[in-house]
Amino acid sequence: MKNRALIIILAVLLAVCGSVGVFLYVRAADSRAIAGQQAVTVLVANERIPAGTTAESLMKLVDRQQMPKSTVPENAMSELDTSIASLVTSSEIAEGQLVTKSLFTEQASLAKGISIPDGMIAVTVPTEAWQRAGGLIQKGSKVAVFDTFTVMEGQGNTPAGDGLSKQYERNQSTRLLLTGLEVLSVVDEKKAAEDGDVGKAIVTVAVKQVDAEKLIHGQQTGTLYFALLGGKSEITPGNGVDNRSLFGN
After folding, report:
1. In what residue span(s) does the Flp pilus assembly protein RcpC/CpaB domain sit (predicted)?
2. How far from each other are the two terminal CA atoms of the chain, in whole angstroms?
3. What span, in angstroms and rounded, lies between the C-alpha atoms of 103 and 61?
4. What is the helix (H) or strand (E) element at residue 179, kind and residue range?
């Protein structure tokens, strides 16, 4: 009888320990879930906010909303503090977009709604629609720039410097000039007609000084083409093609 009673007591103790263990595990899991769903306050644009908007003016254009902490980026703002008091928005903020600290920049680096990255300068090139991927290139696009030019006689792929000669005996070449440039703005010289016609526009890109020199020189001595880059575009610098090698000869 004593052995039987001891066995019963041990069984009861094991059952109690197991129940306690399950309870503690479930409680810990619930705590982790609650922590992940903890609500935090964020600032959300209640309408489109143009680039160059001051922090003071921004207060009237945002709402405070509650969102799960696990879905909010680390630099999301819950209030407009003194760290951005003298800053302005570096780009347009869409309606419903979270306001983050990365969206602000110094007023001095902004020109007519364009935020120029640190260490870069803005260079503008006039283009036709067919020189900018049929008008598909927009602000924020990443582009490669190709240069088509008349070749200096006896100098391989060196530009002659006189633009695109129409003399059939002159050799011409097309080469990759620059790649990975960020487009800061695309401004139509004349608004597109209602029929969707896309014409001339000026494209402004952010470049280092050395690339600015190449871009300006290429514009003066040849014809530039902006190619729209995708996330997996493969661009390799090389000798390009000329009239003689166009068909692989």
Report:
1. 115-228
2. 104
3. 15
4. strand 172-188
Phi-psi region of 27 (alpha: psi -120 to 50; beta: other; left: phi over 0): alpha
How many other CB atoms are there within 10 angstroms of residue 231's CB atom? Answer: 5
Q: Can you give the pTM of this predicted structure?
A: 0.54
How far apart are the C-alpha atoms of 132 and 187, rounded to whole Å?
A: 12
Q: How many CB atoms lie within 10 A of CB 159?
A: 21
Q: Are 189 and 168 in contact (CB under 8 A)?
A: no
> How many whole angstroms separate alpha carbon 31 and alpha carbon 198?
57
Q: What is the Rg, in whole angstroms, of the alpha carbon atoms belonging to the chain? A: 31
SS3 227: strand
How far is it, in rounded angstroms, from Cα 205 to Cα 209? Answer: 12
97: Cβ–Cβ under 8 A, 6 or more apart, which residues?
A: 44, 45
Per-residue pLDDT of the chain (249 residues; tens, 9 = 90+): 555 555 555 555 555 455 545 545 555 544 554 455 688 888 888 888 877 788 788 888 888 888 888 888 888 888 877 777 778 777 778 888 888 887 777 665 555 567 778 788 889 888 888 888 888 888 889 999 999 988 877 556 666 556 666 666 778 889 999 999 999 888 875 544 444 445 688 899 999 999 999 999 999 888 999 999 988 889 888 888 888 888 876
For residues 111 and 230, give the distance between their C-alpha atoms in angstroms, rounded to a whole number. 27
Token output for 107: 């007023």
